[in-house]
Write a structure and sequence with these properties.
Layout (H helix, E strand, L loop, with lengths): L6 E5 L6 H12 L2 E5 L20 E2 L2 E2 L2 E2 L12 H17 L4 E5 L2 H9 L10 H7 L4 H8 L15 H14 L14 E7 L2 H18 L1 H10 L4 H6 L2 H10 L5 H28 L4 E5 L4 H12 L5
Parallel strand pairs: 1-6, 1-7, 2-5, 2-6, 7-8
Antiparallel strand pairs: 3-4
Helix pairs in contact: 1-12, 5-6, 7-11, 8-10, 10-11
Length: 310
């Protein structure tokens, strides 16, 4: 018997139209959206993050959404903070008998939710990191092996950074137990919007120019005038990094736009890498042609949903 899904996932690269699709699915099945976007959690980051809150108003109906505008820009909102908010939102949807639709492009957040990572609440250990600073990757791996196996058996040692984090976790667990994170057990049906590389490039270029016309530069200027530091805006990435560089005189506008387009395109490639990794790990994604009309995309979704007892 086909397992009954307890959520829908809608994912895709930037500018693919996943919010529009997710909102229309939610409208048809009386559902709610959980935004899986690492920057939409910040208040006042509107145009640059593509919140497009007007899209949640459909046919005179407000589609419920969660995980948007959770904190101020100055707040350092970490993965664990997001997961806590996600768990709360997911449970609220279940209480209201609304099937949650997890929609976005932040692959890391999907990875955490699907795999139920348990150690993201373990704090950084700056003293230990300083001690490990001069060690080679091979030395770090050897050092990690000095801890008991139960604290290292799931460690990711693919890079120096991840090996250091694995040591940090093993060291913490050698002294105390981690507080379990009560993730929901997901039984998802996944939909992904697929676009060719050339189409992604066209859409990214078009959307960036639209955002500039809608006031992206003015949004960043307003944040700087409100006292948000240029360093903080650089940390927030992409649009905020490059427009801040333009406003502080580092680049002229044509150079800014050209470099920003390139950076967004590179980001979209990384997103697709995440999604392919999810597939390799056993998550079946029903891919939808991003060039199809919205009605065609919804028809494909409905065809797939008929196979599940939602």
């Amino acid at each position: 018997m086909t397992t009954k899904p307890n959520c829908i996932i809608v994912l895709g690269p930037t500018a693919s139209g996943k919010t529009r699709l997710a909102v229309n699915i939610a409208d048809r099945i009386n559902s709610a959206i959980l935004s899986f976007d690492s920057r939409q959690v910040y208040k006042k980051l509107n145009i640059g993050t593509g919140k497009d809150l007007n899209e949640y108003q459909l046919n005179d109906k407000q589609i419920p959404y969660y995980l948007i505008d959770l904190c101020n820009i100055e707040t350092h909102f970490h993965s664990y903070d997001f997961i806590q908010s996600y768990i709360s939102a997911f449970n609220e949807c279940e209480t209201k008998k609304q099937l949650p639709i997890l929609a976005g492009g932040t692959g890391l957040y999907f990875d955490l939710a699907l795999k139920k990572h348990q150690y993201i609440n373990i704090p950084n250990n700056e003293i230990l990191r300083t001690e490990l600073l001069d060690k080679s990757h091979e030395q770090l791996i050897s050092f990690l092996q000095s801890y008991v196996a139960k604290n290292t058996e799931q460690a990711d040692i693919s890079t120096v950074k991840r090996t250091v984090r694995a040591i940090e976790i093993a060291d913490f667990l050698s002294k105390q137990e981690a507080v379990p994170i009560p993730y929901p057990s997901l039984q998802p049906i996944l939909f992904g919007i697929r676009l060719s590389a050339s189409e992604r490039k066209i859409r990214i270029q078009q959307r960036l120019m639209t955002r500039i016309d809608e006031g992206l530069i003015e949004e960043v200027a307003s944040l700087l005038n409100d006292g948000i530091s240029s360093e903080r805006l650089h940390f927030l990435g992409l649009e905020y990094t490059f427009i801040t560089s333009y406003l502080t005189g580092k680049f002229d506008l044509p150079t800014t736009i050209d470099r920003l387009q390139t950076a967004i395109l590179q980001y979209s490639k990384r997103q697709m890498t995440w999604f392919r990794k999810m597939e390799r790990e056993g998550n079946h994604i029903h891919w939808i042609n991003g060039n199809d009309s919205l009605s065609e995309q919804l028809s494909e979704v409905e065809k797939q949903l008929k196979n599940y007892p939602i």
